[in-house]
């Protein structure tokens, strides 16, 4: 009877924990104006990538330039009054020493100097405020990210702290994925994290077939959701090629452990009945027999055999449906006729 067989091999296999998640930016900022005025110009294009500090928009600065000029003029006036009051204070101090002026006049002059000093400080604050408003009239990017759709057009009057904002910037590099795992898988994950291990997380598309990106586990939430019995985790990805898009649904696979030097066989060769898990083993005389096995982790097309089979043993992968105990078979391995190795 012709069958296709494969030899059990020694190799490594990953232990994964799967979870459902969504791509979540590390930072999203709604850019608003910090001063009132007319929006004169925008210096960005929708959807483009901007760097922190790039000029995004300009508010009409002329009202704040006028305020600055007025504040500077008031400062010059009060500074002149202060200088004159200080000169008079020195003169009154000399006159009091000579008993040529009353003590009360000296006290009054000291109070006048202090009054003008306060006025000068107030003027300096007004100048700083006007300069700050001029700075705020030039709106710059608070972080590096991608700009969304423009929310306000030039020519509109904008107000400080407007709820709608001018635009939204979303950080896309790096990008994070928040996903949930069952609380039953929490213990080995926490153990690895506490030991300082860096755990790899792979993000797959909605269908779970296409790998989008590979990143690292960043943090674990501080509580389990009692309604679902799941815990949230955050993984961070470089996203250098913009594979991940904000709010995108993904399947996350967390690699908890990499088992080395284990016996691996194709998952398609594993058979089950109500009593046991087994494979059809090809013996040296080209007959087959049922070999009960114990299996461990399955990943992709491979399954780990924990007992019952050793590397090098030949097992039937296709043509199993017609096999019976001690039936002689003609083995086809890897597309070529081959004498089977020693059964183990």
Radius of gyration: 38 Å
Spans of at least 5 consecutive residues with low confidence: 335-341
Strand order of the largest sheet: 2-11-14-13-12-15
CATH topology name of the largest domain: Elongation Factor Tu (Ef-tu), domain 3
Classification by helices and strands: alpha+beta
Average pLDDT level: 91
Structural summary, described in words:
The protein folds into four domains: 2-12 and 260-337, Beta Barrel (conserved putative lor/sdh protein from methanococcus maripaludis s2 fold); 16-26 and 173-259, Efflux pump adaptor protein, beta barrel domain (Elongation Factor Tu (Ef-tu), domain 3); 27-58 and 145-170, RNA polymerase II/Efflux pump adaptor protein, barrel-sandwich hybrid domain (OB fold (Dihydrolipoamide Acetyltransferase, E2P), Beta Barrel), CATH 2.40.50; 61-136, Helix Hairpins. The chain is 23% helix and 40% strand. It is built from three helices and 23 strands. The chain has helices at residues 62-97, 103-136, 186-194, and strands spanning 2-7, 9-24, 28-31, 37-42, 49-50, 55-59, 138-140, 145-147, 157-158, 167-170, 175-182, 200-204, 211-220, 230-237, 249-266, 271-272, 277-282, 288-292, 294-299, 302-307, 314-318, 330-333, 336-337. Strands 2-11-14-13-12-15 form a six-stranded antiparallel β-barrel. It has a four-stranded mixed sheet with strand order 21-1-22-23, with no helix packed on it. A four-stranded antiparallel sheet has the order 3-10-8-5, with no helix packed on it. A hairpin with a 6-residue loop joins β12 (200-204) and β13 (211-220). The model is unreliable at 335-341 (pLDDT under 50).
């Amino acid at each position: 009877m012709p069958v296709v067989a494969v030899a059990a091999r020694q190799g490594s296999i990953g232990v994964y924990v799967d979870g459902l998640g969504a791509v979540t930016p590390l930072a999203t900022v709604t850019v608003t104006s910090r001063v009132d005025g007319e929006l004169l110009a925008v210096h960005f294009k929708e959807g483009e990538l901007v760097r922190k500090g790039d000029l995004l928009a300009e508010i009409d600065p002329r009202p704040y330039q006028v305020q600055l000029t007025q504040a500077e003029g008031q400062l010059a006036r009060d500074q002149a009054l202060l200088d004159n009051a200080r000169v008079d204070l020195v003169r009154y101090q000399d006159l009091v020493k000579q008993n040529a002026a009353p003590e009360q006049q000296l006290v009054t002059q000291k109070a006048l100097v202090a009054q003008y000093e306060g006025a000068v400080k107030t003027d300096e604050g007004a100048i700083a405020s006007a300069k700050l408003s001029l700075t705020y009239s030039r709106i710059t990017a608070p972080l590096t990210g991608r700009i969304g759709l423009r929310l306000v057009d030039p020519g509109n009057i904008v107000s400080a702290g407007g709820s709608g904002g001018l635009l939204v910037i979303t950080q896309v590099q790096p990008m994070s994925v928040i996903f949930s795992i069952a609380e039953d898988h929490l213990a080995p994950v926490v153990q690895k994290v506490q030991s300082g291990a860096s755990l790899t997380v792979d993000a797959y598309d909605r269908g779970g077939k296409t790998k989008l990106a590979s990143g690292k586990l960043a943090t674990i939430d501080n509580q389990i959701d009692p309604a679902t019995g799941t815990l949230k985790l955050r993984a961070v990805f470089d996203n250098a090629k913009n594979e991940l898009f904000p709010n995108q649904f993904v399947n996350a696979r967390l690699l908890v452990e990499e088992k080395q030097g284990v016996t691996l066989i194709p998952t398609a060769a594993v058979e089950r009945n109500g009593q046991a898990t087994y494979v059809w083993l090809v013996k040296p005389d080209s007959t087959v027999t049922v070999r009960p096995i114990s299996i461990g982790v399955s990943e992709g097309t491979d399954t780990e055999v924990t007992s019952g089979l050793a590397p090098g043993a030949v097992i039937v992968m296709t043509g199993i449906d017609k096999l019976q105990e001690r039936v002689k078979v003609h083995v086809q391995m890897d597309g070529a006729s081959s004498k089977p190795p020693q059964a183990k």
